[in-house]
Amino acid sequence: METIDLADPGPGEVQIRQSVVGLNYQDCYFRSGFYPAPLPGAVGTEAAGTVEKVGAGVTEFSVGDRVVYAGGASGSYADLRNMPIERVLKIPAGVSEADAAALLMKGMTVEYLITRCYPIKQGEWVLFWAASGGVGLIAGQWGRHIGARMIGVAAGEEKCRLARENGYEVVIDRTREDVAARVKEITGGAGVPVVYDSVGKASFDASIASLAPRGYFVSFGTTTGAPPPVEAGLLQKKGSLYFTRPTLATYCATRDEIAMSAGKLFGLVAAGAIKAHVGRRYRLDEAVQAHRDLEAGKTIGSSLLIP
User: Fold this and answer.
1) Rounded CA gap, 198 and 76, in Å?
2) Residues near 4 by Cβ (< 8 Å), separated by ≥ 6?
3) pLDDT tens across 207-219, in order?
4) Helices 255-270 and 134-146 meet at what angle, rounded to 10?
5) Strand 46-54, strand 66-70: pairing
6) How far apart are CA 67 and CA 172, in angstroms?
7) Whole-angstrom distance, CA of residue 88 vs CA of residue 104
8) For 275-291, b where at least 16 C-beta lie within 10 A, e where not — what string?
9) 72 pLDDT band (50/70/90 cuts)?
10) Which residues form the Enoyl reductase (ER) domain (predicted)?
11) Domains parsed from the chain with CATH numbers
12) Omega cis (within 30) before 213
């Protein structure tokens, strides 16, 4: 922890007194260097709090507004921060700052994955890895709202139970079950039309084997390391498959896309279709332990850092 004096917000910026910081696996990628970032630099891409000052030209925010942001330059692990308004959103009435920070980045990730990257459909089987994590729990609820038949993959009895409580029709315990074999059993041998895989290296073969012909392999994370290079011939032999590696940065690159994605998310929160699940709160000075727990798979749902 380091104490510095923060300058006033510049033109087009607001200064936010942060009450809660969202913890995301992307933070580990930046900290480790897996995602390149300029040095010296800071960590963290999501937080919520209250506007304390506004910069020149800012008219859509006022001092006292409750706000949340996700993405952009790293540096959210702080109690006070200046942010460009392009990435800042007002928190809807009825949503706490803690829930906003637990939901925004993960919820926008789910939005682009299941409504734009591969739009899932009512009655369609869907396989989603890490079903008990922050993204996974939102995906289960959102998929259930759409009417898809969600199959989750989790590790251990407690995580499987939580996934079932959050929209998954079937949950496969990867610690004691063969994922691909169970998927084929569940789908009557057909396989699933789409797999959402945030695990990477350890899950690649099972994901490929779980897909139906012309299925979509959506690889959006690498918690166990990068998946192997994907050969065109493999996609051909396994049934004319599609492979994509999307990112939130490209699906929510503009202010309009951020507002649209967050609007869909908070609309479902207001309707009661999606609820935040905060598994654990850490003090900001416990960020090292929080990263260790996240990388070791010890966390459930969303974790928060409290400045």
Assistant:
1) 23
2) none
3) 999 999 999 999 9
4) 70
5) antiparallel
6) 37
7) 11
8) ebbbbbbbebeebeebb
9) confident
10) 1-305
11) 13-104+253-306 (3.90.180.10), 122-245 (3.40.50.720)
12) no
Residues 6+ apart with CB under 8 A from 293: 280, 299, 303
CB 23, CB 290: distance < 8 Å? yes
Please say whether the beta carbons of 51 and 67 come within 8 A.
yes
Task: Write the DSSP symbol of residue 9.
Answer: P
Q: Which of 303, 263, 265 is nearest to 287 (CA)?
A: 303
Dist CA 246 CA 273 (whole Å): 25
Residue 51 backbone phi and psi in degrees, to 5: -65, 125
181: tokens are 């074999």
| 167-to-98, 139, 140, 189 alpha-carbon distances in Å | 22, 8, 4, 23
Distance CA 168, CA 143 (A): 8
**Contact status, residue 24 vs residue 1, Cβ threshold 8 Å:** no
Across residues 125-132, what is the average pLDDT? 98
- Lookup: tokens for 175: 């610690």
SS3 65: coil
Q: β-strand 88-90 against 80-84: which pairing, if any? A: unpaired
Give me the sign of the Cα torsion angle 225, 278, 164, 262.
negative
Q: How far is CA 70 from CA 59, 107, 118, 186, in A?
A: 20, 11, 22, 37
What CA–CA distance (Å, rounded) separates 90 from 231? 44
Question: Are 173 and 151 a contacting pair, CB within 8 Å?
Answer: no
Confirm if 95 and 31 have CB atoms less than 8 A apart.
Answer: no
SS3 22: strand
Whole-number pLDDT of residue 264: 98
